[in-house]
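Biotin transporter
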Amino acid sequence: MKAKTISYVALFTALTAIGAFIKIPIPYIPFTLQILAVYLAGALLGPRLGLLSQLCYVLIGLIGVPVFAEGGGFGYIFKPTFGYLLGYILGAYVNGWLINRFNLSTIRSIFFANLASLLTVYLFGCIWLYGAMKWVVETPLSIYQTFFYGFLLPAPGDLLLCVLCAIIIQQVRPRIARFTKMKELKHPWAKPTL
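Structure:
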């Protein structure tokens, strides 16, 4: 990988870590700004590099660097929130893939790509939350409670960030594509679709 590519990946890894420390405590799943970095990484770096930035974030946390919302270390995999971190990895890929594959350039279409990314994160998060509460914490949640605490409660804030990021991506992505030579960032913005 070129130094410039490594720098971009490291930047979004760092942004995800910073987002973990800006949080609002709510039951079971704290609301953080990490999802901002997930949307931006996928959209601005492309699917593969976006995924790589989030994978680096998770691996750094698992080796013990306290970059997660509640610390770090390999034992974090037993926490009810770990599924959301796994969701970030695939969520960044989904976002970048949709934007690149369908040439998304309007705020509305980018919003739906962000939404698909968010739903991916919540799918992994809720499944892990349910399993961890049942078999690790041994304080089982019902499917409804899992859906309520794992999705309905934190979703409004994340949806707001979904809209905000769609606006940012629509404005920033064409400018970044002009200044980079990375293949994944090149994009035919001249032909708006969807």
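Residues 46 and 183 are 9 Å apart (CA to CA).
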